[in-house]
Amino acid sequence: MTGEAVALELRPAKLPSRALAVLIDMVVAWSAYLAVTLGLLAAAGSLDDAAVAAIAVSTFVLVLVGVPIAVETLSHGRSLGKLACGLRVVRDDGGPIRFRHALVRGAVGVVEILLTFGVVACIASLVSARGRRLGDVFAGTLVVRERVPTSRTEYVPAPPPWLVGRFAELDLSAVPDGLWLAVRQYLTRMGQLDPQVGWAMAERLANDLVARTGAPAPEGVPPAAFLAAVVQERQAREARRAFGATGTPGFTAAPGYPADPGAPGAPAPAPTPFLAPPAQQAAQAPQSPQAPQAPQSPQAPSEAEHPGRPATGFVPPA
């Protein structure tokens, strides 16, 4: 829970499931280590003791430390044990981990898992409110459950169409993970909040985001819509960084997300001028009694034609 009574949408994994996942990973890793060690010793039988010790240390570091780090990096937080138990390592804000997160978790795991047989990791997980071991604390990560009931799916609502692509040049590198998590929590729960409380919360989060990015929000844009547009831009960047072009097999861009301009063979996107919200455009247009009413565009289907499409949840300012 946050201070504004917004529930945390990430579901931390319990200690028994994490311990089972670590046990599976350790059985596989130690089996591979023993097989590689015996093979190298058999092939290097004529070497002296110093060379044999160097080979043993190198094999230990490579197989028991390097391979798990590489697996977590390439699988975005899913090792063999976590995949079997339905777990995954994510950042504190719910995003996929990178190499530096896996490196810190693996380096600290040598002490709290390998050298102490998991005793330190178990104690740290029991003490932590979110079940994090020391490697998770230093790396800023969290082990969550992926196999959860799907009776109610929480999603971050899409921003209004007139804000899509407006923040492609915004520098988001200085925004901390904690602020991203707070913004995502608010966007997924804003429909459950009192309107005045939700508006004040959105203004505070938008001001914090503006202070971190150094760029003011466009005038006349509701703070909730501004937050949703910036979060969408960040998710699009994360998808391009993790999976490359949007045409990568197995990756489907979310509805409303801009296409990757760097994809091979992708057409160059047309520049998107900043337009005022539709309500403001209608208010600023001259009122002529002879002007006929413009017919509805056939490319803008109504909600009745697409009942499964989620609404944005935002109303342009009057």
TrEMBL record:
Region (Disordered): 243-318
Lineage top rank: taxon: Bacteria
Signal sequence range: none
Annotated transmembrane regions: 20-44, 50-71, 107-127
Entry GO terms, CC: membrane
Keywords, alphabetical: Membrane, Transmembrane, Transmembrane helix
InterPro entries cross-referenced by the UniProt entry: RDD
Location of this chain's protein in the cell: Membrane
Biased composition (Pro residues): 264-276
The RDD domain, residue ranges: 13-140
Name used for this protein in its record: RDD family protein
Pfam families: RDD
Membrane topology recorded in Swiss-Prot or TrEMBL: Multi-pass membrane protein
Biased composition (Low complexity): 253-263, 277-302
PANTHER family named in the record: SLR0254 PROTEIN
The keyword Chloroplast is annotated on this UniProt entry: no
Primary subcellular site in the record, as a coarse category: membrane
